[in-house]
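Homework help board

Subject: predicted structure for assignment chain

Our instructor gave us this sequence and asked us to write out the predicted structure in token form, then describe one feature. I got the tokens but I'm not sure how to describe them. Can anyone check?
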Amino acid sequence: MRRSPVAGISGSIRAVCLSKADLTAAERHGKRLDVTSKARAISKDPPVTSTGLDLWKLYCKHVQDAFVPKCKTVAKHVIIQFPKDLVDGENPQHMLHHARRIVETIFGEQSIFADRIDRDEQGRHIVDIFVAPKYIKKTKKTSRLAVSVTVHEEALAEKHNRSNSSRGRGQAMQDAIFAYFRDEMKLPGVQRGDPKANPGPDWKSAEELRKEELESMKAEAEEGIRKVAEQEKSLQQLVEQAAAERDAAALERKKAQRDRDQAEREKAFAEQLRYEADRLKQEAERARISIELERQSAEEALRQKTSEIERRQADLKTLFGVASEELRKAAADSEAARRNRVASEAAINEARASISTVQAERASFEQERKWHYAQLSLLARAADDRNGLELREGSDGVRMDRSRMSDDEKAAFASPLPSAIVTMARALAKALERVRQALADLASKEKKLDEERVKVEERKRQLAAEREQHDAAVQQHTAAIADLKRRMDYCAAKERQLEEAIDEFGRSLESARARQAKVQAAEKTQTEWLEAVRLINPALGQASLNIEGKVIISAALAKTLPPSVASTLKQRAPDWVIGFVNQGQLLAGLKKQAAADLAESEKRAEAIAADRRQLEQSRSILDDVVAGRCVATMDGDNLCFSYRDKGQPPRVLRFSRSKLEPTMVHLLEHHVRIATVAAEVSSLQAELKAERETLAKEHPERALDLQRDQERTAQRVARVISPPPEWGQSHGR
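My token output:
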């Protein structure tokens, strides 16, 4: 791959949209719980993070005070790569700080909810930031905090004069990160990354690159097989040429025989016949040398073919290792799916525990309501002093005479009093104290009035003697009457205040009764919603919430519910029900994902098992062919294998090429071709042996040399056409 001119001195930024499932997968990847992350890890170094790795919890906490629109994308995964030649990759804190600043300049200061730098992978300059950007959403009537994954990118595109499209927003982010490298970090020689030549994503994962590498290796293997086929074709041509030269040599031998017969018949031409015989011998020798050279070429081609087959064996071993690794990965995926199922069951148990807690709180609230009602009744009876309870203020509340109380009233008075009832009791005690004081003052005044009356009578008896004193006494009496009138007016005012206090107490009592009714209504609502949740709990994953906060269920499920529950579901759900439904949807999504992962794992395991069975069958047949236990022939698109057991009639197995492993099919075809070539070479060897025996008879002095040549030829042919000793035992493993 051609290296970019700005490689190492330019950075990059990429924002990937995440759904809820994607966010969960990203969390598993960060915690090294999935197969991909484990395959990429080259060390055990922990990640560097300032927030933690629990992405879902961090996201929920981040958006709890904001409005979240209903859409598939809930967050974005921002991937920042720093220039490798300008930034120290062994300083993760420095990169994490600047990566957060870059993201905040693009998406705002209230956008980041998680960050991470992986230190166990080969790349050392990549920072992962997870954002859910917030902004103030304004309408004609409202203004509230909301989450949006596009608002800030659109503003950035407008700022950098880019089009409001996916490509334009990506270019704007590249402009922004380049400006930050240049102006804020002041990296010397930093350059902006080259623009993409074609639209669409140009980033590829390590798995995709590995897949391309395997496809390239497969293409190279196919090209090697094609070249081997061409070499076999060339070898066949050489064999045919050797056969033609062999025929020519046979014709020459026949001609030499005719010449020898002619020499016997014509003794007069003996010298000429000997000369002709020598010439023919020289030509035969040249033909033999030519055949030997051609045979050596064939031997070299056979050696190359053998090397190619050995290399194919190594490739088959590698492919088998890859298949074993895929099987191990499938087992790991199945184990991860099992753990997800266990986590889902734990979430269900936690929801059931929450329902039990709510029921316990309701029972506690009912008991507390009964105590409060008994306390208010006791306070109402204490408001009348004729009942003898003597309600008075105390240092820590109010005091009453316990001897005038019933057992239930004593228990209610001994239980803790709420602050509202204590305040009401204090006010009532103060009012009663004022009434008692006013009555005491009135009694005292009446006593004084009686004394004054006695004095008046005494003075009346003295009027006859002292008229002047009588007038004075009358005036004094008039003044006393006026004072008494003022005092009686004061008592009347006090009585009115007491009546107002009693009225206030009555209103407080009515308010308490209204609150009690409201609490009872809330309790009834909670009971109805508890019953509704209990009935729809088995199908909670199919329930949803509309924009008004109402629970939406399927028509089939609605028909099975009682009318009271159906009426309850038409109302806006309480916050705890909304949270319960959201958790149910999340749990259903996790179950569905776990089921899909399990099905995919089983499907992958079945495919690997099928490939393994096909490979084992093909390998077994190839071992039988190489070991000589059967003979392979080709019949169109079929391969035929003939087995001959001792004492048994021959049996023939026929397989279609599609039912055997492709590489094994190629090896079998090559083996058949090599066997054919070996048969032809053996035939040529036999004919050459016969020719050498004939020459040895004609020239006894060369018999020993010809025999040695024949032995060397037989050894070379045996080395070329004989299969390796391990082929019949572990070929293809």
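Reply (TA_rk): Your tokens look well-formed. For the description, you could write something like this. The first helix runs from residue 20 to 30. That's the kind of observation they're looking for.
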